[in-house]
Design goal:
two-stranded parallel sheet; 2 strands
Length: 168
């Protein structure tokens, strides 16, 4: 994701052996850790990394379409920082399970279709602003908070009929 042309993450993930630059928005350790739900709880868990990465590029490209300002000015938003990657990778695992259950391809079109059913607040740049600690994603700045944020988004999708049939 950090090296692929066309990836919204190209050059934005700070490797452990490099000094942080203005382009880096998240540390590799945090990013890799945030992938755990996708790699352990989604239909992609049995696929090799080179087969998983293109689906994640498509997933994040849809987020880039939905909230382009967060990708143009990532320092002003938590979408491409720890709160965003942890909550949105957990959401990705849910969406991948929904796609699997519904027989939808793991594609940008499927991800866009499902994400378009999120409440408009979740799809607004204002919600993801770094300084929106009152009623935005920045208010969920802990592992527990990331889980609560994901649960809220999953509940919104569930209310629109998207169900992964997961017992969790």
């Amino acid at each position: 994701l950090n090296e692929s042309d066309g990836s919204p993450w190209k050059g934005r993930i700070q490797p452990p052996n490099l000094k942080k630059t203005d382009q880096h928005t998240v540390r590799e350790t945090s990013f890799v850790t945030s992938l755990k739900p996708v790699l352990t709880r989604s239909p992609l868990r049995i696929r090799p990394a080179d087969k998983v990465a293109p689906h994640l590029v498509e997933y994040w490209s849809v987020w880039q379409e939905l909230i382009p300002e967060a990708f143009r000015e990532p320092t002003g938003y938590v979408l491409m920082k720890t709160p965003g990657v942890f909550s949105l990778h957990r959401l990705a695992a849910f969406i991948l399970r929904v796609c699997d259950k519904e027989g939808l391809p793991f594609s940008a079109a499927s991800f866009r279709r499902i994400l378009s059913d999120l409440d408009p607040d979740f799809l607004s740049g204002e919600f993801w602003k770094s300084d929106n600690t009152k009623n935005g994603a920045a208010a969920y700045g802990s592992m527990k908070g990331f889980a609560v944020l994901t649960d809220m988004m999953q509940a919104a999708l569930f209310d629109k009929g998207w169900d992964d049939d997961n017992e969790d």
